[in-house]
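Let us begin with a simple case.
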Amino acid sequence: MFINSQEFAQEKDQKDELKSFKTEFLFPKHTDGKNVLYLCGNSLGLQPKNAHNALKSELEDWSNWGVEGHFHGKKPWFHYHKFLTDYSAEVVGAKPIEVVVMNQLTVNLHLLMASFYQPEGQRYKIIMEAGAFPSDMYAIESQVKFHGYDYDDAVIEVKPRKGEHTLRTEDILKSIEENSDTISLVFFSGVQYYTGQLFDIKTITEAAHKIGAIAGFDLAHAAGNINVKLHEWNVDFAAWCSYKYLNSGPGNVSGVFINEKHCTNPDTFRLAGWWGYKEDKRFLMERGFIPEPGAAGWQMSNAPVFGMAVHLSSLEIFHRAGINNLRAKSIELTNYLEFILNDVLKKNNDISMQNITPSNPDERGAQLSLLTDKNGKHLFDYLTQNGVIADWREPNVIRVAPTPLYNSFEDIFRLGQLMLAFKI
């Protein structure tokens, strides 16, 4: 049972075994010199304090070693991606051989679809959610056009029912079954960016495989947020960014998952590059591509070490905290946020909004999306002026993300108090 009081929130924080992790992050300052109330980790995570030293270390190796840093630095750049592999596998529930960190998210989605969107005959269509993040829509659009198809014919968008904001799993499954003879790829996000809905990845994957299709996922809003089990769920491929819940800096590197059954098969098609060539033969510079076993065989260019160094510093924090522990706290924090917002709606008639994120904790991550009325932007601007960093999405949604690594129950209480004081 929750209570809307500072004492209750502080008591919850005192019992929180993860509370010390908040001190490992740098917070922007409000105009009063105090830390902002940062509830925007679903867009860009905060900077870990250890990121500076991690980056400095690589700059020192560059300074001290020059090109020899590829082999003689503290973390040799030649196989730098390996330092991130085990931690990344922990975050997404994969075997280390199934994971590699490289490039950026949409680049990786294109590379993965080059491998796994292989239309043939009447089986050429892609099923995805309507209103997906624009990068996903653009990537899918260009992929089907590349293969000579028209978007409106080749892409089936599953929409929420009239009057609803989120998709029902049964409707996704029905669409897959109804189009079973023509589907090549089932492609969804893990967590829907706008509504915060967590899709049933396991069930969607099973339905795709039942009709002989490939199942792929964009985990931009899921990695580091929910408890993902990509190997256990038999997902074919997935990719995610590192700068949202994974706190690795703007535009930083992306992670890739390729199921063991695909990534250990050297005949699985991929757009090849030098850095994916078999490591022990790479400098022989020979003709004819021989892939490094596993997801690492999808690498194209050598590692962007500076970005990876920052990402590694964040992954080390996730390793210490434990993704299961973070998910448990996330559920509690988000439940408390929902409780506080409902209490605000009862007490402040100047606020009109609707939570369009599922109320079932198993169907959402660390985010609530608040559908507002004509005064919504006024409310958002008021919160910003009072030191709250949240996220506005057109036309009228405020996204609030209580991130378990650096948000507290008292943060949620403070947000509620500010909203109670809001006046039109």
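The second case is a distinct protein. As before, the sequence precedes its structure tokens.
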Amino acid sequence: MGEIKYDNSLAFAKKMDAEDPLAQYKNQFHIPKINGKTQLYFCGNSLGLQPHLTQKYIQEELNDWAHLGVEGHTDAKHPWKPYHEFLTNNMAEIVGAKPEEVVMMNTLTVNLHLMMVSFYQPTNRRRKIIIEKDAFPSDKYAVESQINFHGFDPKADLLLWEPRKENNYYHTEDLEKLLEENLDEVALILIGVPNYYTGQTFDLKKISELGHAHNALVGFDLAHGAGNIQPNLHDSQADFAVWCSYKYLNSGPGSVGGCFVHEKHADNIDLNRFAGWWGHNKETRFNMRQEFDPIRGAEGWQLSNPPILSMAAIRASLDVFKEAGFHNIREKSIKLTGFLEFLLKDLKDIEIITPKNPKERGCQLSVELKSAGKDFFKKLTASGVIADWREPNVIRLAPIPLYNSYEDVFLLVEKIKSLLDEK
């Protein structure tokens, strides 16, 4: 992909849209309207928009439930018994994994706890966990509770990977130093990718190599990564990863999450796990008197039969991803975010705190207000922009390649400029 020479004009934005092979996909999503006015939606990093397919797919399951009752488990158009399997291949491609390494189940923090049951096995000597300092709060709470559960002290055993003060970015050299300062004491590294606040992403393979070189296990929270960046989970050699599906994967509020377990752990039945019947051998699952026999791979961590209506929504979105091609989505994402950065970078009173290098970010740009506060954000919202506020003074903007256009980006920045001039 060659470097684009951007131009600050509506004509340029319309030209880019006319040449965009993914432009048609915007018409496959419901764009919010308030008081009859279509909004500029840049909040897909918090909740993705609904594909038109979603209602059709969910209605199909409602119809099969109405007409078939319990027989829908085997006789529905998409039988409910193996329904999660309809999501696996598309999801594996999006996160760069083998199908047997991926399963859609539960919700994000539930999956995080399940993974720590298996991959956080502290001893009196090796019991510490490393997370990034500004990790998403739910991750921090989950990790602290796991440390407490094992009888240790989060104040002593939770280590924070600190960003550098000059630019607030994390550097792997500092992570390596933290590991060396706590030699033979770190049991697990758990990092959110990208960071929810700044949008900085990380080299997963390098972090995995660092952790494994110090005999620590490594996991990633891809809540802000799945459907946004390509994490290449299999090649990264990460031990596990978890993610939600309602942000970039457009599956609806609170929908089912995803889980990755590297194939090197696929046959390790000695790993501790909290087991449930849906993780049991499919051939004998309904013979109720069998001892637990885990399915090989990530499916073996399932607990319960899947929530079909939620998974129908995920299937709808993943079918859009498959048709568009994730490589194409990522390529547009880099261009679209680059255009947003180009338009914002010279504005006074704001600073982009997300890394400039496209390899170190997804589509989100976090914009720090230098001399304005939440009132500015409220005015931006009133002007027809749906974005995301983070205390104390950051607006997160996420141009989503499937349903945001270059014209959307141009109009967004024009509104920001107008409000800054007004201020």
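The first helix runs from residue 10 to 18. The CA atoms of residues 96 and 232 lie 4 Å apart.
Keep these points in mind for the review questions at the end of the chapter.
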